[in-house]
Design goal:
Length: about 325
């Protein structure tokens, strides 16, 4: 059996503001095997490392008076939201922003580093991973999550898949020391990437992200296996909260189709843990994330995606 991978979710995002050079380097210092990065595009087609299209939660955009007139209302998951949107700004504008901690009251240590690092482009993350692999003399993997590919195409005519392929080609990645996986919830970009791969060696790995039990039927599994190498599943689908034997069945069904299984997102603070795994009363205190890791490993989960690479490696006693 292949060793379990510790996958740093947006870097060591419990220690530093997410998606920053500091978070990625800290993740490798803490023993991460793979750096996970979400990407969205600016209005002029530059891919940047952000989870949200809206920028106010994770950058200092509100403190830039020269950008005040770019604030717009847009329909979000929970109604209309007024914010600054990365795809309404040019890279020249986005590059002036500094990163901030998403949950400052839960992660005050990270929040103390607000403003230290700028927003990174995907090209800069690729360059960083390659340089770190060479300097450390070990493999540094990258897991690139595509966000809202269809929406970017419909709203702005942006071809996120082609843009990612161009950035990878310019960086001459993947290579043996820097394996690359591309992840998405949407099937279509993964199908395009599989069709375009041809005989490329080493080939970019493909990961279908799943957060809904309805996507785990036999028919869906067969379709996933036809286009992907790995299925990345929400923790709720594999842990005990999913119901008796549900996690075991999910992993078994994936393995029968030669799919690896990664699980997301492991977070150690009480704020993010089930009541039974919390320790103490402070939302910022660490609870028993180790129990979640142990349960996932016993099921055969091969990749742990989380915010605490050091704790994930130590608590899970996983190999590198």
């Amino acid at each position: 059996m292949a060793p379990t991978r510790v996958i740093a979710h947006r870097g060591a995002s419990a220690a530093c503001p997410e998606h920053t050079r500091g978070a990625f380097v800290a993740a490798l210092d803490q023993g991460a095997d793979v750096l996970e990065v979400d990407i969205v595009s600016t209005a002029d087609g530059v891919l940047v490392a952000r989870h949200d299209w809206a920028l106010s939660r994770t950058t200092d955009v509100a403190a830039h008076p020269e950008l005040a007139d770019l604030r717009r209302e847009r329909q979000g998951l929970h109604g209309r939201l007024s914010d600054w949107w990365v795809d309404s700004m040019t890279w020249r504008q986005v590059r002036t922003l500094r990163a901030r901690e998403r949950w400052p009251f839960v992660r005050p240590g990270s929040a103390a580093l607000d403003g230290r690092w700028p927003v990174m482009t995907l090209a800069e993350v690729l360059e960083l991973a390659d340089a770190q692999a060479r300097s450390r003399g070990r493999g540094v993997g990258l897991a690139i999550e595509l966000k809202d590919v269809q929406a970017a195409r419909l709203r702005h005519g942006l071809d996120i898949v082609a843009m990612v392929r161009a950035d990878l080609a310019a960086a001459r990645l993947p290579r043996p020391g820097v394996p690359v996986w591309v992840m998405a919830f949407e099937p279509e970009p993964l199908e395009r990437l599989r069709a375009a791969a041809g005989g490329e060696v080493p080939r970019t790995g493909l990961v279908q992200l799943v957060q809904d039990e309805a996507a785990t039927s036999s028919t869906e599994w067969d379709a996933v296996a036809a286009r992907c190498d790995v299925v990345g599943v929400a923790l709720d689908l594999v842990l005990a909260t999913a119901g008796a034997d549900a996690g075991e069945r999910l992993v078994r069904d994936a393995h029968r189709r030669n799919l690896g299984v990664w699980a997301w997102t492991f977070r150690a603070e009480n704020e993010f843990l089930p009541v039974g795994l919390r320790r103490g009363s402070s939302p910022a205190a660490c609870g028993d994330m180790g129990q979640q890791i142990l349960e996932a490993l016993e099921l055969g989960v091969a990749g742990l995606i989380g915010d605490h690479p050091d704790l994930m490696r130590r608590l899970g006693s996983v190999g590198s």
